[in-house]
Amino acid sequence: MGHVKGLICKECKKEYAKEPIHVCEFCFGPLEVNYDYEAIKKVVTKQSIESGPPSMWRYEALLPLDEAPKVGLHTGFTPLVRAKNLGKALGLSHLYLKNDSVNHPTFSFKDRVVSVAISKAMEFGFDTVSCASTGNLANSVAAQAAEAGLKSCIFIPDGLEAGKILGTLVYGAQLISVKGSYDDVNRLCSEIGVNHNWAFVNINIRPYYGDGSKSYGYEIAEQLGWKTPDNVVVPVAGSSLITKIWKAFHEFEMLGLVDKVQTKIFAAQATGCSPVTTAIKNGSENIIPVKPNTIAKSIAIGNPADGYYGIKTANASGGYGEDISDEEIVSAMKLLAETEGVFTETAGGVTVGVTQKLVQQGRIKPDEVTVICITGNGLKTQEALAGCFSAPAVIEAKIDSFEEIFSKLFLFHLIEFFHEL
Ligand SMILES: *Cc1c(COP(=O)(O)O)cnc(C)c1O
Ligand SMILES: [Zn+2]
Predict the structure, then answer these.
(1) Best mutation site among 106, 107, 110 for ligand 1, i.e. most ligand atoms within 8 A of its Cβ?
(2) Which residues contact 328 (CB under 8 A, 6 or more apart)?
């Protein structure tokens, strides 16, 4: 069970009761969960965690629920993959992928935040859950609301990928496509919340939702053998994940589970929507909102809720921020698939491509332990690879047909081979 005293303003430190609220009424700062770390210190050890379930709920004492989780019991504890082939291609000898493209139940890192948010919404007694989503959050809220037996009403910007839309509708959710960008959808949801008493997982439930992201950081440290890495390259949308990985590592340090944290946190965005990395590169602490224009739609937030803290995290850790073009995203998605057999969505292309750039800049060194965050599944963003591959060869179900095409293919490979020489 969690050890939550209440909520606390991140800026002025005013304390609040556990309620579905997210903004300080005095200074308008964001509210966060206020944990009783003294109580946590008494119960959390490496052994207590290791004897827990193979899911994010092995860290239940560090997550913001008062009762046992009600949905997403199998979410998290995704593989930390040693990426030797990709490492060779990028010039990194200790490269890992934290692979949430196989997260349960909807194949993205969002399953973590939604497991917490919907469980919390049920503790509060809501009967309807909602969200403003760039796609993956919609999938996860729809799926886990179905599991919970709650109604869901989900808002997305128009123009999302077919896989993200079908991957929401299939669970019986009410899905509404709003003309505009994610930022328009988010503003609309805040207005809807005034008239409808719903749990908006990333708005009024945001303090609890955000802490679901901590489990991604805990797992990286535990799976590295209770060590934090030298570098983590994180995809940034609203900046929840990047700030919570940092928070997770420092909580583990405070609990004595890892040595002093010296991890550099790198923010990764698409150039077509890069308010956070642009600010970092300009040495600015403030976000200048942008209008998103990129194939990396899942991380296309032009005015990120926690953007200010995302910038601070990268800077405080000694990391940096970089962004890459849509063409570079596609190349990186292919590189990851060809080297490691991992098919990620556009956001994973962003982190792989940005890592490549950071290595070239000398900001990530060849023998450092580096973790690339892979946060979503490529089957959901197939549009990104449209036109990249020719259709498969079609043959009759006859051995002659095969041998004929095989000799042609073989000849083709031979020509390619001499070409490369
Ligand atoms: C939402 C999302 C992120 C990052 O989200 P934050 O709002 O920055 O926490 C990263 N990758 C994918 C695939 C996502 O859907
Ligand atoms: Zn405040």
Answers:
(1) 110
(2) 349, 353
